[in-house]
Amino acid sequence: MTDTLYTAVATSTGDGRAGGRVLSSDGVLDLTLAVPTEMGGRGGGTNPEQLFAAGWAACFHSALKGVAAAEKITLNDSAVVADIGIKPNGQGGYGLEAAIHVELADIDQATADRLVATAHQVCPYSNATRGNIDVRIDTTVG
Fold first, then answer.
1. How far apart are CA 34 and CA 24, in angstroms?
2. Exposed, middle or buried: residue 122 (CB in 10 Å: 0-12, 13-18, 19+)?
3. N or C: which end of the chain has fewer CB within 10 A?
């Protein structure tokens, strides 16, 4: 791991997703966790799926911007929405599924699709999950 550029460190304490807390080593991230109401919990806090969705959306968006910049394409109005679902895996545990929605303006569909496909090859979250979970990606231009 001598080529590691950065290591994020976070610690979960308490009851994990059921009322615990997650804290980054620098103290910037300090969140209370809660089971969402959709899963029978009380809500009122974040959960691992939201954190994963936020991380993947931000990472994919950065990869997309980087890919576009390398091709000297300016993306003026763009957004990436990550939907992360949790579901039983049929083996007594749980698995994840993802849908990545990319929204771009002022660009043609073919170029947008190419940039998004390349970003999916560059993004560390995409690379970490490839072949491990179902991922759907769609691109909307407007």
1. 17
2. middle
3. N
What confidence score (pLDDT) does residue 1 get?
58
Predicted TM-score (pTM) of the model is: 0.94
**In which band, very low, low, confident or very high, does the pLDDT at 105 lie, cut at 50, 70 and 90?**
very high
Give whole-number Cα distances, 70 to 4, 60, 63, in Å: 23, 15, 11
Euclidean distance between the first and final Cα of the chain, in Å?
Answer: 42
Dist CA 67 CA 122 (whole Å): 8
**For the chain, what is the mean pLDDT?**
96
DSSP designation for 37: G
For residue 127, pLDDT beyond 70: yes
Supply the DSSP symbol for 19.
T
* Helix residue ranges per DSSP H, 71-108: none
Closest CA to 75 of 49, 46, 103: 103
In whole angstroms, what is the distance from residue 40 CA to residue 34 CA?
Answer: 10
